């Protein structure tokens, strides 16, 4: 991954305030911007060197922390969307990654997925169950083999009806299943971080499916991430689609 060029907190803050996300709803972008500005303020108050903060943004750590906190808050609400979900162990239509992007994840998540799969015995591959399934899935039990390392896209997807998930996995739209709003915030924070660091550092995203497949093939982390890197517009498109 490329190293960040010199920047300072005041410049980064101004860039973030001016950053615009084409296609992402202004309400989502503004909330994500405010949360990322708070993250910047906190980092500065903690005397985090700006180069380290830029590196955190490259890796997607602010997106993960902010989106993760949002997800945890929603999950705790008794009357929230997690209150009556149909999700159960061994139910895995949501692990069929039917989109062309293979599941959008950050660098930190891609490294976690690769590391977790690299520690497991080779063999089970979700694609033995379904050709578009995530390779991290156990095709027999249909349980995630890297549950603790699963990325935000997996954590934020819930459903009231597994048949809706099955329909969606075949490309048929259905109500009642999808990611909660925390995923939109996570994507928008990452996209804003990229916009703020434009010309200073690259902020990539990766295909979950491609990273997992490479890890199962024994490909080392650097090569796996290089091969799984998305084109820049993938993040913008996904942020716009979900906002
Ligand atoms: S999101 Fe859908 S497919 Fe996934 S566990 Fe929940 S009900 Fe099952
Ligand atoms: S990482 Fe785990 S939860 Fe996520 S899509 Fe793959 S198998 Fe499913």
What does the secondary structure layout of this molecule look like, with pairings?
Elements: H1 9-18, H2 26-45, H3 50-59, H4 61-76, E1 104-105, H5 107-118, H6 152-155, E2 157-159, H7 162-169, E3 177-179, H8 181-196, E4 206-207, H9 208-216, H10 221-228, H11 233-242
Antiparallel strand pairs: 1-4, 2-3
Helix pairs in contact: 1-2, 1-8, 2-8, 4-8, 5-9, 8-11, 9-10
Bound molecules: iron/sulfur cluster (2 copies).
Helix content: 40-55%
Low-confidence stretches: none
Briefly note the structural class of the backbone: mainly alpha
Reading side by side through the largest sheet, how are the strands ordered?
1-4
Shape by Cα distribution: globular
The largest pleated sheet is described as: 2 strands, antiparallel
Computed CA radius of gyration, to the nearest angstrom: 18 Å
Order of helices and strands: HHHHEHHEHEHEHHH
Cofactors, ions, other ligands: iron/sulfur cluster
Strand content: under 5%
What is the CA-CA span between the terminal residues?
28 Å
The overall average pLDDT, rounded, is: 95
Q: Can you count the helices?
A: 11
Query: How would you classify the quaternary structure?
Result: single chain
Organism: Thalassococcus halodurans
Pfam family, one: CxxCxxCC
Protein name: Putative zinc-or iron-chelating domain-containing protein
